[in-house]
Design a protein that fits this description.
31% helix, 7-stranded mixed β-sheet, Spore Coat Polysaccharide Biosynthesis Protein SpsA, Chain A, alpha/beta
Length: 240
């Protein structure tokens, strides 16, 4: 079973809008509708948990899920202060809804975990495709952890504290990471638990980073698309 966790709890301040970017209307419908539709129609996804801020839960239920008839949305989950808080709330909802067990044992293969996976995706990333979801699912079934991305087209510089170029990593090894990111359920729960218990969540920007920092499992990189962009600033809206 694959449950998609769609994150729509952010404020999107860089979009310079009074409305969170995932709820901006483009061509007569909110961005989040375009994102949800891909997962709703996907053969790879069994259910969806939509995570949003408390003040938008009623709006999402009435104006998104019910209005557009998203049958796979099993629950609207209240988000937290940080991204990882929102993901954690959704992970706990999986346990409550489906009775999934979160006991992790190192060395076990992904298929040993009764086939329970989560696929975490940004609500403001509406250009994801069925092919990307298929490749991600195939990878997580083998490796337990997979993150979508693309090799960087540009040379990347690592800056020092004063803003000078300190290092130039080989471009062939640099990937620009996207979502979805998929994990076996016990793995992602245990990785979050470890980092939270150790107070190491500061600076975390995605879920793959949590698994990497936990030391439990390497994250397999999966080819996404250069078009699978996240809407972040006003300049991105032309893509729609």
């Amino acid at each position: 079973m694959v449950t998609a966790i769609i994150l729509a709890a952010g404020q999107g301040r860089r979009m310079q809008s009074s409305v969170p970017k995932q709820f901006l209307e483009v061509d007569g419908e909110p961005v989040i509708v375009k994102t949800l539709r891909v997962f709703e129609l996907s053969r790879e996804i069994d259910s969806i948990l939509l995570v949003t801020a408390r003040e938008y839960t009623a709006y999402c239920r009435e104006q998104i899920v019910e209005k557009y008839g998203f049958r796979k949305v099993a629950r609207i989950v209240e988000g937290g202060r940080e991204r990882y808080d929102s993901v954690w709330n959704a992970l706990m909802a999986c346990e409550e809804l489906y009775g999934w067990k979160s006991t992790y044992e190192a060395g076990r293969k992904s298929r040993d975990f009764a086939g329970h996976y989560v696929m975490i995706h940004d609500g403001a990333r509406p250009f994801v495709t069925e092919d990307i979801l298929r490749r991600t699912k195939e990878a997580v079934e083998i490796y337990q952890a997979a993150a979508v991305g693309m090799p960087s087209k540009d040379t990347v510089k690592i800056a020092d504290a004063e803003g000078f170029a300190a290092e130039t990593p080989p471009r062939a090894k640099v990937w620009l990471i996207q979502t979805p990111q998929a994990f076996s359920y016990p793995l992602i729960v245990e990785a979050n638990r470890r980092l939270m218990a150790e107070g190491r969540m500061s600076g975390v920007t995605d879920d793959a980073m949590i698994v990497e920092a936990s030391g439990l499992q390497k994250v397999k990189l999966v080819e996404g698309s250069y078009g699978n962009v996240k809407l972040t600033t006003p300049e991105d809206l032309w893509r729609l």
